[in-house]
Amino acid sequence: MALPSHSLINNNNNTLFFQIYLSSSHKSQYRPSRIRALPKDSSRSIVEIEPFACPICYEPLIRKGPLGFNVPAIYRSGFKCKKCNKSYSSKDLYLDLTVTYGMKEYTEVKPTRTELFRSPLVSFLYERGWRQNFNRSGFPGPDEEFKLAQDYFKPVEGGLLVDVSCGSGLFSRKFAKSGAYSGVVALDFSENMLLQCYDFIKKDDTIVDLNLALVRADVARLPFPPASVDAVHAGAALHCWPSPSNAVAEISRILRSGGVFVGSTFLAGVFGNSVPGGIFRSFRQTVQLTNSTYNNLTEEEIEDLCKSCGLTNYTCKVQQSFIMFSAQKP
Ligand SMILES: C[S@@+](CC[C@H](N)C(=O)[O-])C[C@H]1O[C@@H](n2cnc3c(N)ncnc32)[C@H](O)[C@@H]1O
Question: Where is the Methyltransferase type domain (predicted)?
């Protein structure tokens, strides 16, 4: 894969600017792992162009802080939108790029299918039994799902992957560890899921320094410039989104030409479709987690959604109510 050409410009503030030029027309210009330069002084303070964009105006954010596309470096960095003059920084170890970041008076409550996963209990239980329940509906399990997704992502290996609605990072960690991507963004709306993700990363020495970023964002307002991302993964997520059409439109906006979207979800109206039961049953009843609370779609609806949002080469694999689908940005 061609590396982006970049130049270093010495500015008056004794910092180094990176300017990244498009290396080829069909690859994203953002290559976090490739962006490297020696700092001019020992402070290692630099300003560099990032893959992240302002969630308000989608202008690329300017970053100030230590080098590197990894959790510790991003945590110690500040991000600013020159157009909106709004600053973003890491809160509790993840970078908060929601529109509401910094608002003091305004609060917003999302639908139950989004709010449920913000709970510390659900976030804790998610990889400790909750997700295993999906097997009863035909989900083949994380290892097999990861393999299926990796097959779909073959054409975009080496690029920037965004794991949208990553939960506690089950697949983000696998993508990062695979070494197949220049950068992996684990993105979710739930603060507690991201904190869980950090806990899992912390316990695994092989992940902390990998090209992995933790970002809080809304799938309907993805903090990336248009046509800047090579791969978007959304595992078991579409049925949780407040508006699947807004979400898929956003995913289509950020994918560069040739970029690949892979998603999985529970299909509507298929026998065996279930939300977590067993030890979770009483909790489920408490929050009235019925299938109608989730937004399950049919196979035809998912295909229609992808095509109507400008994606092509739609293909899918179905097993009971599990569907994994893939579509490409032309
Ligand atoms: C069932 S979990 C899927 C987690 C993981 N991707 C997996 O495959 O197991 C669904 C995730 O969607 C996230 N989610 C719900 N609404 C969202 C929104 N508006 N924007 C981003 N993520 C959202 C939830 O926080 C939750 O972590």
Answer: 162-262
Please give the distance, rounded to the nearest whole angstrom, from the Cα atom of residue 118 to the centre of ligand 1: 9
243 and 303 in a single domain? The answer is: yes
Smallest Cα–Cα separation from 318: which of 258, 268, 276? 268
Ligand 1 centroid – CA 76 distance (Å): 26
What is the DSSP-derived secondary structure letter of residue 267? B
DSSP letters for 95-147:
EE--TTTT-SS------HHHHGGGSHHHHHHIIIIIGGGGGGGT---HHHHHH
As for how many domains the chain has, the answer is 2
Residues 156 and 41 placed together within one structural domain of the fold: no
Give the mutation target among 189, 197, 216 for probing the ligand 1 site: most ligand atoms within 8 A of CB: 189
Residues 185 and 215 reside in one and the same domain: yes
Helix segments in 154-296, DSSP class H: 170-178, 191-202, 244-254, 281-286
Tokens of 15: 């910092």
Q: What is the pLDDT of residues 194-207, one digit of tens each?
A: 999 999 998 988 87
Atom 8 of ligand 1 has which residue's CA nearest to it? 235
44 and 166 inside one domain = no
Residues 125 and 35 in one domain: no
| pLDDT digit string, tens, across residues 129-155 | 999 999 999 999 999 999 999 999 999
Residue 23 Cα, ligand 1 centroid: separation in angstroms? 33
- Are 176 and 320 members of one domain? yes
The reported pTM is: 0.84
Task: Identify the domain containing residue 74 by its residue range.
Answer: 6-96
Angle between helices 170-178 and 142-152 (to 10 degrees): 50
Q: Are residues 87 and 190 in the same domain?
A: no
Reading the block at residue 50, the tokens are: 């990032």
Residue 211 and residue 177 in one domain: yes
